[in-house]
Amino acid sequence: MLDCVVFGKVAGDRAARFAASAIGWRDDGVFQSYLETEQRRLKAFQKGNGTEEPAELRDAVRLILTQKVGMFRSGADLEEALKEIGKLKQRFSQLRPISVDKVFNLDLIRTLEVEAMLDLAQVITASALARKESRGAHVRLDFPQRDDEHFLKHTHAHCTPTGPRLDYSDVKITRYQPEARKY
Questions:
Q1: Cα separation, 158 vs 82, whole angstroms
Q2: Strands 165-170 and 153-158
Q3: Which entry of 48, 61, 67, 77 is 20 to 30 Å from 126 by CA?
Q4: Distance set, CA 5 to CA 8, 9, 10, 12, 127 (Å)
């Protein structure tokens, strides 16, 4: 454990030196502002404002993803999953008080993991819903064919207060031409 702590400190120090030496670097208080925001977030976790258990939310999002956002999916299931994930995010805002102890704090770690799980589940589901095609191992039952004209693209998700915003970029075709799988 001591090696991890020492390595983490060394890596952090070097990252800070690198960032400080970057061309055009200015300290506009960005780091301090971010630190203060995170400290407020941790204090809010510590106070809690409800009775929701992070583990229950984790289990619920797993179930939604397994049942509605698996390999075989439909638009109706994906829309329902997005709504349910939204409700879970609302429930997350009503957590019971979370310990913010600084040593071996599994309660806080698991809470932060659930928060990230909910965000990622929302991105995955929104991205799957937007792709009206089947590709590779992901099958849209309501769109069984590939659609290279519209969806031979990389999906980029951006966080916004209202949920993920999706953008796309072209796929660079190099050695292998895309083709439908035929088994």
A1: 16
A2: antiparallel
A3: 48
A4: 5, 6, 9, 10, 37
**CATH number of the domain within which 76 lies:** 1.20.58.100
88 in Cβ contact with 65 (< 8 Å) = no
pLDDT of residue 6: 55
The three-point CA angle 75-81-86 to 5° equals 130
The reply to whether 25 falls in a domain is: no
Domain carrying residue 106: 41-170
Could you tell me if residue 110 is inside a domain?
Answer: yes
Asked if 64 and 108 touch (Cβ cutoff 8 Å), the reply is no
Say how far residue 97 (Cα) sits from the centre of its chain. 23
pLDDT of residue 179: 81
